[in-house]
Amino acid sequence: MEKALMKVSSLKAGSFWISSKAKEEFSNITQDITYISNTVEEKAKWVFNKLKGKPLKTLPDLLREYNLPSGLFPQNITCYEFDESKAKLTVYLPSACEVSFSDSSVIRYATRVKGILLRGKLTGIEGMKTKVLVWVKVTNVAVESYKSDKVWFTAGVKKSRPKDAYEMPRDAVRVQEF
After folding, report:
1. What are the distances in angstroms from CA 153 to CA 35, 139, 175?
2. Which positions ≥6 away from 152 have C-beta within 8 Å?
3. What are φ and ψ of residue 165, in 5° steps?
4. Region at 72 (left for phi over 0; alpha for psi -120 to 50; beta for the rest)
5. Which of 38, 61, 79, 81 would staple 57 via disulfide (CB 3.0–4.6 Å)?
6. What is the 3-state secondary structure (H, E, C) of 62-120?
7. What pLDDT does 178 receive?
8. What are the tens digits of pLDDT across the range 35-90?
9. pTM
10. Cβ(67)–Cβ(55) under 8 Å?
11. What does the radius of gyration of the chain's CA atoms come to, in whole angstroms?
C-alpha cells in the first residue's frame, strides 16, 4: 500500500513539473508570436506610407528637428509614427529593452512608447522608465533651449542629465519585462 502511495505521489509531482514546463513554453511561444505579429504590422504600415508617398525622416532626425537629443531612443527601433496635427509620437521597438548611457543612467523601453512631441519636449510619455533606486515611470523629457547642455527627465521628480550623453542612438539590450 505504501509503495502504491509513493508511486502516486511521485506521478503527481512529475506531472506538476511537466505542467509547469508546458505553461512556461506556451508563454514563450505566445511572446514570440506577439513580437512577430507586431513587427509585421508595423512594417506593413511603414510600407503603406512609403507607397502613399510619405517619406519618413529617421527618428533621430525628427528628434533633432524638435530640439531633443537624437539618441533618446535606442538604435534598433522597428519604426515610428508621428501625427503632426496632434503632435502624437509612437515609437515601436522589437521587444522590451534598456539602454545604458554614458552618464551612467539607464532607460527601459516598452515595445511601444507614446508621447506628445512638442518643440523641446516629449510629454505624456507612456512606455519609458528610468532607474533611480527603483524603476520609475518617465512622464516628461525636456530641453529648455536650443543651446542648453542639459536634458530634464521627469520621473516623479525633475532631474537634469547631460545632453551630450543622449546625442547618439545606442544599441539596446533585450529585457524580459518592462
Report:
1. 29, 8, 22
2. 140, 141, 142, 143, 144, 158, 159, 160, 161
3. -70, -20
4. alpha
5. 61
6. HHHHCCCCCCCCCCCCCEEEEECCCCEEEEECCCCEEEECCCCCEEEEEEEEEEEEECC
7. 80
8. 677 667 666 766 666 666 665 789 999 999 999 999 999 998 999 999 989 999 99
9. 0.69
10. no
11. 22
What per-residue confidence (pLDDT) applies to 38?
A: 65
- For 138, other C-beta atoms within 10 Å of its C-beta total 22
> Mapping DSSP to helix (H, G, I), strand (E, B) and coil, where does residue 52 land?
coil
How do residues 148-164 score in pLDDT, each as one tens digit? 889 999 998 999 999 99
In the numeric block, which cell numbers belong to residue 175? 529585457
What's the length of the chain?
Answer: 178
Residue 9's SS3 state is helix
Burial class of 87 by CB neighbour count within 10 A (0 to 12, 13 to 18, 19+): middle
pLDDT confidence of 15, banded at 50, 70, 90?
low
